[in-house]
Amino acid sequence: MESGTSRTSGTGGTGNAGSTETSGSGDIARTLELLWDTGRRPSRGPKPTLTLDRIVEAAVQVADTEGLEGLSMRRVAAELGTGTMSLYRYVPGKGELLDLMLDRVQRPSENPADLGDGGWRAALEAMARETLALYRRHPWLLQVNQSRPILGPSALDGMEKVLTLIRPMGLTDPELVSAIIMIDGYVVGAARSQLYQQEAERRTGLTDAEFWQAQVPALEKAMASGRYPVTASLSEDAFGSDFDHFGFGLQRILDGLEVLVAQRRGESAP
C-alpha cells in the first residue's frame, strides 16, 4: 500500500517553479464524485470493459515510467489497449485523472506499526520517511503544484491517522496542522534535491563521485591559499555521503517540537 500522509495537509509543499500540472485544475464537482463514488451509475447497458481503478493505475504506471510529460489520455488508453474515447466514459479528462492519481498514491498503509509506536514523535518521523519514500517511488509528484489539493478518501484517511496520533501533543489545532506542514515542506525540499541530483547525473553522464573528483585540483589550490581557513579545517568526512543529512535535520525539527510540547505541559524542556 502507498503511504503519503503528509500530502493530506491541504497546504503542503508544491512542485518546483517549473511545475507542469496543478491539482484541482479539472471539474472539481466531477472529480469529487469520482473520488467519493457518489455519481450516478447506469442501470442498463453492456457491462463496462474497463474500470476507473484500472485507468488510474495505468495512468500512475505511465507517469512513473515516463513522467508527467508522457501522460496523456491517449497514452493511458494505449497502456490499457483500448481507444482513447473509451476513457472518457469514466473520467472527463486529464485534469480529473491527475487528481485521482494523486489520491491513489497517497493511500495510507493499513499496518498501524508503519506510523511508529503510537507516540506523536514516532508518528511524525514515520510520516516524514514514508513521504520521502513516496516521492522516490513517484518522482512526478514533484512536478505537480498541490497548493490546492482535491481531498479524497486516501488523503483524508492518512490525515486522520496522523492527527489521531499527534493530538496528545497538546497543541492548538492550527499548530497541529502547522507541524504537519512544516515537516512536509522539509521532506519536499529533500526529495527535490535528490531528484535533481539524479537528473544531473542522467543528463551529464557523470556520477556524483566523478563530478566532485573533477573539481579536486581547483579546490585543493583554493584551500591552500589561506583564503578559506575554516572550510580548509573541516574533516575529510564533512561532506561525505555516509552522513544522514535528512535524518539529522528531521530529528532537529522534532527536538524543537518536543521543547514546545514540554512548555505547553509546564515541564522542563528535554
Brief characterization of the structure:
The chain has helices spanning about 30-35, 50-65, 75-80, 85, 95-105, 120-135, 155-165, 175-205, 210-215, 215-225, 230-235, 245-265; strands spanning about 20, 145. With about 270 residues, it is an all-alpha fold. The two termini are about 35 Å apart.
Q: Could you characterize the architecture of this molecule?
A:
The protein is mostly helical and 270 residues long. It is built from twelve helices and two strands. The chain has a two-stranded parallel sheet with strand order 1-2. It is flat. Residues 8-18 have low confidence and may be disordered. Pfam families: TetR_C_1 (PF02909), TetR_N (PF00440). InterPro entries: Homeodomain-like_sf, HTH-type_TetR-like_transc_reg, HTH_TetR, Repressor_TetR_C, Tet_transcr_reg_TetR-rel_C_sf. This is TetR/AcrR family transcriptional regulator.
Which tags fit this structure?
270 residues, mainly alpha, 12 helices, 2 strands
